[in-house]
Amino acid sequence: MESVFPQRKTGVNMEFKAIHEGILHWSWEKDGPTSASVRSSDIEVSCTGGKVSLHCRRKNVPLATLEWKPPFLRIHPHQPENAYGLGQEFLGGPHGDWLGRQRSPGNKYGNSLNIFQGGSNGNTQLPVLYVRTQESCFAIFLDQPRAQRWDLREKDMWVVETKAERLPIYVFSGNSLADLRKKYLSLTGRAPVPPRKMFGFWISEWGYENWSQLEEKIRTLEENKFPLDGAYLDLQWFGGITENSPHSQMGSLAWDKKNFPNAKEKIAELRRRGVGVIPIEESYIAAALPEHAKLAERGFLVRNREGGSPAYLQETPWWGLGGMIDWTQPEGAKHWHNWKRAPLVDDGVLGHWTDLGEPEIFDPSASYYAGNHEDIHNLYNFYWCQSISESYKRHRNRRRPFILSRSGAPGIQRFGVALWSGDIAAKLESLEAHFQAQMHVMMSGIDYYGSDGGGFYREEAPRDTYPEVYTQWFANSCAIDIPLRVHC
C-alpha cells in the first residue's frame, strides 16, 4: 500500500474517481470545473457551480454539500446526529461526540503536545471524519498534511480551515460506522497484530538508572505475583542527557556500558525469565557527538534553508543542543537503521519507543529532503516509523515490528505503530478524557492506543488521593490499553 500523505498522486482540475464501491476521490483545485459527476452503486458525487454534492444512492438521500474557497472548506451535512474521528485532541467533558465542538490543531503546524488538566497531552492530526445522519452515514478524509481546524459547532454548516494549495478528498459511504472505518483502512492500510507479548503488562519510568534498579522493580512485582511481560527503558539506557549542552548523549543510541553492561547477554537472560526490553529513541543529535558530524557530512540532518548547514536547535534545550535527523531522506533513514537500530534488534530488543516525534522541537524555517517544515511537520513521525518498518523488511527480520509512538499521520498504523496519549496528568478527569481520545483515535485508524498508566505528572494528584487514581487507572488500562504500560 502506498503511503497516503507523502506519495499518493492527486488528480487535477477536480477529476472525480471511483476507487471502489463506496469510496470516491477528487482533488479540489482553485480553477476546477463547474460541473462533473461520478457514481458507484452506493454513492454519487456531483459538482455544479463549484459546489460538490454527496448523495447516498442506496437509500436515495442527500449526505452533504461541500464548497471550497481557500482557506475554508464549508460542509453542509444533511441531518447529522453524531461525528467521530479526527485523531487525538483532549477536551474533556461527559461525551465524545465532535458535533457542537471545534477540533483545533496543536500549534500552527499541527501535531504537538498541549496542556490539559496540568499534563501535556498529544494532539495528533488524523483528518478523517465519520458522520452518522438520521438516515445514513458517510465519512470524509482530507488527504493533505498541513494544519487543519475543524469547526463543527453549527449543526448545519461545518468549516474546515487549512492553508492547503490543493485539497485531495476521499468520501466514503456505507451501512454503518464500522463499515466506513473498514473502507478507510482499505485505503490507508491495516495495523498488523502486535507480537503477543505486547498484550501483556509492561513497566516504565523516567527512568531506570541501571540494570540493578530495573531488577529491583522486577523482584517486587514477582514477589507480589504480577505477570510481568517487559520493561521500557527511558533515555538513561544510552547515558542520559545534559541540559543546554552540545555534549549531551542524546542521539548516541548506544548502550551506556557502565550502567547497562553486556546488554545482549542481559536481554537474553531477561527474556528467558519472560521479560522483554524496549528502549526509547529520539530524533535529536547533540552537536558534539561523532554521530552529528557523520550525519552532517552525508547530508542526513535537517538543514538551514540558506547555506545548507545543519539546523542548530537551541530553543528548548532540556535534551541538549544540536541537530535533527531528516527522516524524509530515504538514504539517511536507511543508514541510521543499519548503523544504530539494527544492532539493537540483534541484541534482542522487542520493539522501538519513538519519542518527541510531533516533532516537539524544530526550526520552522528549516529545509527537509522532501520539502519545507510546513508540509513535513505532520509527516515527520510517519516517515520515521515507515523507515523502521521498511528496514525490518530489508533486513528480513522474521518478527514484525512494534513501535510505540507519541504522534503520527494517517496510515502510520500499517507500520506496526501503537499510539500513547503523552505526558498525561494523574487525575481521574484526565483518565476520563483519555477514553474519549481513544475512541476518536481508533475510529481514525489506530487500533492500538494507551497511556502512561497511572499518569505521568503525579504531582497533579493530591498525595492522599493518588492510590485511588492509580488503582482505577490500572484497572481500566488492563481492559482497554495496548500496550498496558505503567509509567511510575
Can you offer a commentary on this structure?
- This protein has helices at 4-7, 177-188, 211-223, 263-272, 290-297, 330-347, 373-376, 380-394, 428-443, 466-480, and strands spanning 17-20, 23-28, 35-39, 43-48, 51-56, 61-69, 72-77, 80-85, 102-103, 112-116, 119-123, 128-133, 137-142, 148-151, 158-162, 167-173, 201-204, 228-233, 276-281, 284-286, 303-304, 322-324, 352-354, 366-368, 371-372, 403-405, 417-420, 422-423, 449-450, 484-487.
- The strands form six sheets. Strands 3-4-5-6-7-15-14-9 form an eight-stranded antiparallel beta sheet, with no helix packed on it. An eight-stranded parallel beta sheet has the order 29-27-26-23-19-18-17-30.
- The protein has 488 residues and is an alpha+beta fold.
- Residues 1-5 and 7-13 have low confidence and may be disordered.
- The longest helix is centred in the last third of the chain and has 18 residues, at 330-347.
- The two termini are 38 Å apart.
- α6 (330-347) packs across α8 (380-394).
How would the blueprint of this fold be written?
Layout: H1 4-7, E1 17-20, E2 23-28, E3 35-39, E4 43-48, E5 51-56, E6 61-69, E7 72-77, E8 80-85, E9 102-103, E10 112-116, E11 119-123, E12 128-133, E13 137-142, E14 148-151, E15 158-162, E16 167-173, H2 177-188, E17 201-204, H3 211-223, E18 228-233, H4 263-272, E19 276-281, E20 284-286, H5 290-297, E21 303-304, E22 322-324, H6 330-347, E23 352-354, E24 366-368, E25 371-372, H7 373-376, H8 380-394, E26 403-405, E27 417-420, E28 422-423, H9 428-443, E29 449-450, H10 466-480, E30 484-487
Parallel strand pairs: 17-18, 17-30, 18-19, 19-23, 23-26, 26-27, 27-29
Antiparallel strand pairs: 1-2, 2-16, 3-4, 4-5, 5-6, 6-7, 7-15, 8-12, 9-14, 10-11, 11-28, 12-13, 13-16, 14-15, 20-22, 21-24, 24-25
